[in-house]
User: Which sequence fits this backbone?
């Protein structure tokens, strides 16, 4: 991370953010190191200082699939008050570490979340991914009891098809948790990105075979928009 490239105010905010949510009771290791996102968190804080976002919005956060949706998310989810806060390359542990800066400070009414993809690729087991998700969910409910959580299941991709089974296992555990707990909604994007043979459709991905292209985000949106608009539009 090149701290020299950040303006002074961003450096100050970044240094303050690193210990904001370093929970001593977190049962697992913060791995990889969550401080690698200091500059990204600082940029969000600088933007907030210049243009304070409204409370009661829907925070949209998670890894690169969420971040790369930013340019069109407000068009894909029209009429909703959205606060895009995706940070590419992140894991559930990164969001846990930065919960105060990315979620709690905004006092949102709902959280739209995408994680788990990088976690699985890093080698974390489905059980570990689920435990990280569960800890995150419990912290959110402890801090914001009325928060509604929409969890987008990890997506399939050509680049990570070798670990598809592990990803589906963690997805299934998260799905079961959401089904058993009021205020949690699991959104399954997996089947809409597959072809008739059950493999990721190449025409939906960028050249890296990992990230979605525009056609891929059309499918992604087809799974997510009816859920968000159906549940949240009346609250605007």
Assistant:
């Amino acid at each position: 991370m090149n701290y020299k490239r950040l303006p002074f105010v961003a450096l100050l905010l970044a240094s303050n953010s690193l210990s904001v949510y370093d929970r001593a009771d977190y049962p697992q290791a913060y791995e990889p190191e969550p401080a690698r996102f200091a500059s990204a968190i600082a940029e969000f804080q600088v933007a907030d200082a210049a243009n304070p976002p409204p409370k009661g919005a829907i925070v949209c956060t998670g890894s690169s699939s969420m971040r790369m949706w930013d340019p069109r998310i407000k068009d894909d989810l029209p009429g909703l008050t959205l606060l895009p806060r995706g940070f590419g390359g992140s894991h559930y542990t990164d969001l846990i570490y930065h919960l105060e800066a990315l979620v709690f400070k905004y006092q949102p009414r709902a959280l739209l979340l995408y994680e788990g993809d990088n976690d699985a690729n890093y080698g974390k087991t489905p059980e570990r991914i689920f435990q990280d998700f569960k800890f995150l969910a419990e912290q959110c409910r402890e801090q914001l009891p009325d928060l509604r959580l929409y969890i987008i299941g990890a997506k399939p991709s050509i680049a990570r098809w070798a670990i598809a089974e592990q990803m589906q296992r963690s997805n299934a555990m998260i799905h079961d948790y959401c089904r058993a707990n009021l205020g949690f909604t699991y959104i399954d994007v997996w089947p809409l990105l597959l072809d008739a043979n059950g493999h990721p459709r190449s025409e939906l991905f960028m050249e890296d075979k990992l990230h979605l292209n525009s056609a891929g985000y059309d499918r992604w949106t087809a799974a997510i928009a009816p859920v968000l608009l159906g549940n949240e539009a009346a609250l605007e």
